[in-house]
Amino acid sequence: MSQNQPPVNGAPEPQDPGQATQPPAPQAPQYSAPQQPQYPAQQQYPAPQQQQYAQQQYAQPQQPYVAAQPAYAPAPPTNTLAIIALVGAFFISLVGVICGHIALKQIARSGEGGRGLALAGLIIGYVGIAVWVIIIVFYVFIIGVAISANSY
């Protein structure tokens, strides 16, 4: 084809047979400004009509409301001497034994709590006294053996 003839199918012919044609650059689409959506007009509803009802008379309750009671009774207070017996038995065993016996007597008479504490104080106190007795007997025995060994 020659240069004077119009292109076939709207595409330009390459001028050099070795050179390929480049596609035309894409054009940016033209957008218009966004349109506001059109909503249908809101329908006006009539005001609700209030119906007149007769007031019903309710009977008074037969029994007054009583507050619910707890499911269990509160625990009785713990005897103070029972606590002293348990704590004292670790430091001075005789305090645990004496306070433990007094606490058990008070608990039996008044119904207070802490019987287990008093018994634990008694047991630990008696075990402590037994350990001290064994230690003293052991030292007396060792001292007696040492004296008899040096007496020749």
From TrEMBL:
Keyword Transmembrane helix tagged: yes
One family name in Pfam for this protein: DUF4190
InterPro entries (UniProt xref): DUF4190 (IPR025241)
Domain DUF4190 stretches: 82-134
Transmembrane segments: 81-104, 116-149
Keywords on record: Membrane, Transmembrane, Transmembrane helix
Entry protein name: DUF4190 domain-containing protein
